[in-house]
Amino acid sequence: MRDKSFTDILSLLHHSRTNFILIGGVAGMAHGSARATLDVDVVYSRDSEMICRLTNCLKPFQPALRGAPAGLPFTFDEPTVERGLNFKLTTTLGDLDLLGEVSGGGEYEDLLPFTEVLEVFGLPLRGVTLERLIQLKRAAGRPKDLEAIAELTALLEERRKLEGR
């Protein structure tokens, strides 16, 4: 894991005490994947206090909808996040996908039993287990996710061998 923007984004979320679960490519990297990723993907708690923390910590970094037409009005604030669900954002720190719900995994509370604390950029962050990450990638079904499954499955098999399972 080497991208400074990932470090900055995750450090910001961690230090704001926002409840989130790391999924996607950065979670894969935390589990040993060598695949590169371009953004940070998290499933965030939709509790009103967490939404307040999330919007307050990200506001200074000019969150905007990634891929939206230029000039499209967008304000990243509590009412917007409460009315919305999933946000693909670009910020001055880098790209961040904030997911209120994820295919094959549900919401934050649904995913919690399938998480563990991962050491990511020196931070203890809650991330999905390797088994759940594979399931999420299967459910997403995008070509890049399907390509990643082979490597993640090999990592899981290797881990199980080392653990004697």
Features of the shown structure:
165 residues, alpha+beta, 5-stranded mixed β-sheet, two-stranded antiparallel sheet, 7 helices, 7 strands
What overall geometry do the principal axes of the alpha carbons give?
Answer: globular
Percent range for β-strand residues: 15-25%
Please give the count of helices: 7
Helical content, roughly?
40-55%
Report the end-to-end length measured between terminal Cα atoms: 28 Å
The largest pleated sheet is described as:
5 strands, mixed
* Helix-strand sequence: HEHEHEHEEHEEHH
Descriptive notes:
By secondary structure, the protein is α+β, with helices and mostly antiparallel strands. Helix content is 44%, strand content 21%. It is built from seven helices and seven strands; from the N terminus they run αβαβαβαββαββαα. Strands 1-2-5-4-3 form a five-stranded mixed sheet. A two-stranded antiparallel ribbon has the order 6-7. A hairpin with a 2-residue loop joins strand 6 and strand 7. The radius of gyration is 16 Å and the shape is globular. It starts with a helix and ends with a helix.
